[in-house]
Amino acid sequence: MSETSSRLRGPAQAHPASGLAGSLAAPGDKSVSHRALILGALARGETRISGLLESEDVLNTAKAMAALGAGVKHNRPGEWVVQGTSGRLSTPPEPLDFGNSGTGVRLVMGAVAGSGAGADFVGDESLSSRPMRRVTDPLGLMGARFTTTDGRLPAHLEPGELAAIDYTPPIASAQVKSAILLAGLGAKGETCVRELQVTRDHTETMLKSFGAEIDVTREGGGTRIRLTGPQRLTGQVVDVPGDPSSSAFAIVAALIVPDSEVTLTGVMNNPARTGLIETLKEMGADLTIVPGPVMAGERTMTVTARTSPLRGIEVPAERAPAMIDEYPILAVAAAFATGTTFMPGLAELRAKESDRLAGTAALLTVNGARVEAGEDSLTVYGAGPKGLEGGGETVTHHDHRLAMSGLVLGLASRTGARVDDIAMIATSYPDFFDHMRSLGAALEAG
Ligand code: S3P
């Protein structure tokens, strides 16, 4: 983790760039990093993790797992050892603070509930405004006794035993699915989650590698996942693959900044995460994909992106879960394309670190793009070869992905662009500034 980039605060300016060039090792995947710490804490014995993403969100999960009784040791950059509790988390005396992280708090709610422990859960202003009933309701059906603040944080969980449920989440959410599965590990009987749309399956993959007996079957357009509790996990070695969501910023920057060629290595190549790559290819992006090694049960790839004339397309709504975090940066790419890009099925974007649908529309508009925000859709009218003027300031609303998207837009614009606050970038991609500058991007804090 870079000391300088992780401590940056306040506004920043992206200056117009050209010729971005170089190669980056993709930062560790955030979803896999959270899960490695949580499963390590639930398992028997030692879990050795390398390539852990040392971002604020993940570090908050590491602290929470230590407060819940796991041994959590940081050896070298990216290298962590977790001494598991054999499924017996203990009720911590202080509230668990998850900062900005929805994934951290929701997954740990499931893990704590399933282990029979209790806890208080708190977060920052953004996280405290996000919906928690999507997790506390199904966990409540299993017998977990949560009290929330009108469905939001702070939340309190009383210690107690759980029983299995058969549950169909009303929304496509890997966080909801994962919270129930983690709770199901400790609940008596067969827990079944039926997801109507496939979402990222890292919890299922990692549970298997930690020795869980878990059945995953395709059902209609979705998946049925079953596990019978109580089950014990065994500590493992986890080599975290690179994050496709963080890699998206350098990839899109290379596509829209003139004369660029950028390579990212070790990017996780999981169909539940690669919707953006598929979409960019349909838009005409010049991307070369070369297979890499399997890491933590996940395929990886090397992605090379070169400046490309992009064209607008309609993005299928069913693809949304496979690129849910990538819509802000896709919308930036679309603003430089020729023609219109229509992105339907985006209701969930309003429940992210900020209302990302509104925030994305605002960051484009303020920089001279034409965009329409519907209730659950975005339409971007691409500027074509004349490009975007820029000159606007992105209001980030404590949202890391809006901040990084606003800066990438500025690099490709005629006059550059500002963002009001870059502090939140450290929640998911602390090396963003160092990485982008190493490619030749002129990013200035202050
Ligand atoms: C995540 C799932 C997604 C995603 C988030 C990470 C995960 O959230 O937006 O950044 O690690 O399970 P939802 O499951 O709420 O869509």
CATH architecture identity of the largest domain = Alpha-beta prism
**Number of helices, where a helix is a run of at least 4 consecutive DSSP H or I residues:** 13
Rg for CA atoms: 21 Å
Mean pLDDT figure: 97
Q: Give the termini distance in whole angstroms.
A: 21 Å
CATH class of the largest domain: Alpha Beta
Biggest sheet, spatial arrangement of strands: 21-22-1-23
Bound molecules: shikimate-3-phosphate
Could you say how many structural domains there are in total?
Answer: 2
Query: Helix/strand-derived class?
Result: alpha+beta
Please provide the count of β strands.
23
Q: For the record, what is the CATH homologous superfamily label of the largest domain?
A: Enolpyruvate transferase domain
- Report strand %: 15-25%
Could you give a short account of the major beta sheet? Answer: 4 strands, mixed
CATH topology of the largest domain: UDP-n-acetylglucosamine1-carboxyvinyl-transferase, Chain
